[in-house]
Amino acid sequence: MAKHIEPGMRVALPVDYAGVSMAMTRPIIEHGAGDLDLVCVPTGGLQVDQLVGAGLVRSVETSAVSLGEAGGAPRFNAAVKEGAIRLKDATCPAIHAGLMAAQKGSPFMPLRGLIGTDLLRHRDDWRVVDNPLADGGDPIVLIPAIKPDVTIFHVPMADRFGNVWIGRRRELAAMAYASQLVLVTVERIVEENLLADEMTAAGVLPALYVTAVALAPKGAWPYGLWGEYPTDSAEIARYAKAARTADGFAAYMGQAQMESA
Amino acid sequence: MAEVLPREVLICTIARLLDGVRHVAVGASSPIPAAGAMLLRAMKEAEGAVGPRISILGSVEHNFFTNGSAELFDCAGQGRIDAFFLGGGQIDGFGNVNLVGAGDYPRSSVRWPGSFGSAYLYFVVPRVILFREEHTPRVFVEKVDFISAPGVSPDGVFRSGGPIALLTGKALFRFDKTRPGFELESVHPGHDLAEIKEATGFRFAHDAEPRQTALPGRATLDLLRGRVFDELAETYPEFAAQMRRELGTVDA
Fold first, then answer.
1. Entry's Pfam families (chain B) (predicted)?
2. Which domains does chain A have, with CATH numbers?
3. Which of A13, A168, B137, B164, by CA, is between 20 and 30 Å from A248?
């Protein structure tokens, strides 16, 4: 699936707990398409840090990047310090608003808050206008539509018709609606049509929005996957320690053992 | 009076600051704010009243949302979240919060994770409690290096929320948005005004002899050490276990 990714693409990736396709990280790095503009929905972690560490990233739009309890994201933080990546610091609802605008085919979405922040001051793509429906004044920020070239995530299951089960992780649908390409890895592929049963249908992202599905058991590891398995905190801590230096990062990524024990 | 741990004082203070809220949201790795909210719920229910709804982000059990990670912010925008907690790598005397980094942006000398939802929630959640245990001049600065979220907004800017208090490991401050600035409300046991002045990089108003932070009574402590730590252990097992270990060493 990594062959879909071309240099310079805008790539949307989900928050740690929503279903990160860690299984795709190494294929993307081996494929080697660089100058990627990442969009973290709405924050990033291990996958973002590894793609930055591998030198494939040109910019990161995000509300935060960290390894959670394991601390700061070491390669991301180093790249920030060196000025090696362009930052588009955001706030969570602004990222959701940008995807929502794309979902509706609208050019922007207005959002409260933000006025007086240094986030706004550093974002030349965000605009402040006076609310046209008020009697004057009432400034509000317009967030332009975020239209990723590709969205990549991991979920428990898909059916053989290409419908994927996203449960209540609705941000995965928002990302898919907004994207040209949607690449999904899954724990398992089921025989029955997920849209045929009303109980499952409500949590399905229909095949209409899905470019490709691949089987990848434990595909979120070392992150956990909702309803399936918990996060492997020890492994994330091991990465956090190793990746403090560029050499340590390279050694970690070069290890053959990159799967769950 | 039984011996009370410093963190129990913080939890009980948070419960007091939250009194009256209908719905409080707590960040993913915030065991002390979560414990404060759970304590308030337990106290209300013990009186036969209705306790607050508590949403803990990242928890499956204490999470009512079915519309993805956007729903918390939508919920706040609709006015359905009354209280929230914010920390910060830096907090200044105007209530400005910096979650991005120290030094010149974008090439911060120390980069923190980022602003998360602060640049929105600080504007629309009526009772934001600033909470940071570390009380040092490195955290509480005269002026933040980056404004993730401003303490106050000019007239004409939509603002239904903002900070009401700052709770640290040493003291409790109230925020006065008319000045704007902080006022020392009370000092936790074992600390004093001179030490707090030394540890705070911004100026704040205070009485000549500030009072001590109120300590919980027996009934509150029993609820905290029983039901609340049990509930807390579901989401923050390590924190709950650590509190119980520390309690084993005092006269509980």
1. CoA_trans
2. 2-90+147-254 (3.40.1080.10)
3. A13
Contacts of A92 in chain B (CB under 8 A): 69-70, 73, 116-117, 120
The answer as to whether B235 is a domain residue is: yes
CATH assignment of the domain containing B200: 3.40.1080.10
| Predicted model pTM | 0.95
Min Cα distance A23 → chain B (Å) is: 22
In the three-class reduction of DSSP (H, G, I as helix; E, B as strand; rest coil), residue A206 is classed as coil
State percent of chain A over pLDDT 70: 98
> Residue B3: its pLDDT value, please?
86
CB nearest to A64's CB, from B116, B121, B124: B116
Rounded CA separation B77/A240 (Å): 35
- B150-167 per-position pLDDT tens digit: 999 999 999 999 999 999
Give the closest-approach CA distance of A102 to chain B in angstroms: 15
Residue % of chain B over a pLDDT of 70:
97
Question: Could you tell me whether strands A127-130 and A212-215 are parallel, antiparallel, or unpaired per DSSP bridges?
Answer: unpaired
Structural domain of B49 = 6-86+117-131+154-248
Give the 3-state secondary structure of residue A261: coil
d(Cα B140, Cα A46) in Å, to the nearest integer? 30
Q: In chain B, which residue's Cα lies nearest the Cα of A117?
A: B147
B91 is a domain residue = no
> What's the domain count of chain B?
1
- B251 confidence band (pLDDT: 50, 70, 90): low
Distance from CA of A27 to the nearest CA of B (A): 26
**Chain A residues closer than 8 Å to B71 by CB:** 170
What pLDDT was estimated at residue B59? 72
Provide CB contacts within 8 A for A250, sequence distance 6+.
Answer: none
Report CB contact under 8 Å: A93, B157: no
Residue A147, amino acid: K
Q: How many CB atoms lie within 10 A of CB B175?
A: 23
Tokens at residue A157, please?
């299951």
Residues of B with Cβ-Cβ distance to A65 under 8 angstroms: 113-114
- Any domain includes B158: yes
Mean per-residue pLDDT of chain A: 96
In B, which residues are within 8 Å of A76 by CB distance? 111
CB B130 within 8 A of CB B97: yes
3 state SS of B28: coil
Closest partner residue to B123 (CB to CB) among A65, A92, A113 is: A113
Is B111 within 8 Å of A172 when comparing Cβ atoms?
no
